[in-house]
Design brief:
Layout: H1 5-10, E1 20-21, E2 25-29, E3 35-43, H2 56-72, E4 79-81, E5 97-104
Antiparallel strand pairs: 1-2, 2-3, 3-5, 4-5
Length: 106
Amino acid sequence: MEDCIFCKIINGDFGTEFVYENEDAVVFKDINPKADTHLLVVPRIHVESLNELNDEALLGRLMMTVKEAAKKAGLKSYRTVINTGKEAGQEVFHLHIHILSGRIKL
C-alpha cells in the first residue's frame, strides 16, 4: 500500500535500522517507546490488522519472529501486544506485534 508508513519502512524509504529480519518480517525499534525496550514486528506483506490475516502459517512464523528478535535483543522476558482496530489503540493500519520489556512508560 503506497501511503502505509510501515510499507515505506520495509521498502527502505527512511533508512530504518532493522534489529532483526527474515523473509516474513522486519523488526525495528518503536519511535515512541512505551517501555525500556519496545520493538515492532511487521510482516513484509501489507495486512491491515489481525482481523484481515487469513494465513495461519504466517501468524505462526510471525510469533517465531517475536521469539528470535527478543533473543537477539537479549530479552529474557517480555510482553507481546497486538492492537486490532482503532478502538483497541491501533494507530498504524498494517498488522504489527509490539515486543515490550523492562519498565513500562506511561
